[in-house]
Amino acid sequence: MDDQTMDDQKFNMSMRKFLKEVGVTSQQAIEEVVRAENLGGKGKLKVKAVLTAEGTGLEHVVEGEIDLG
To answer: In terms of pTM, does the model score above 0.70?
Structure first.
């Protein structure tokens, strides 16, 4: 395996670890606010996630709605 392939694998593993943490902690935060503010069953929750990377021009925005059932 060459150095580039190993670097790509290391990058991909690191990125997957970060994205997993984002997903898990974001879900926990949303569930917590829905419980704390008694929002269950009350339509939809509009959400927005903004991803930036220090020292870069990255600003990725994802907006959506979560059905509160």
So the answer is: yes
Token pair for 36: 């704390």
Question: Please, which residues bridge with residue 45 across strands?
Answer: 66
Whole-angstrom distance, CA of residue 42 vs CA of residue 45 = 8
SS3 category, 66: strand
Residue 66: count of CB within 10 angstroms of its CB: 13
Instruction: Write the pLDDT tens digit of every residue in 10-51.
Output: 999 999 999 999 999 999 999 999 999 999 999 999 999 999
Rounded distance between C-alpha atoms, residue 10 and residue 31, angstroms: 32
Q: What is the DSSP letter of 34?
A: H
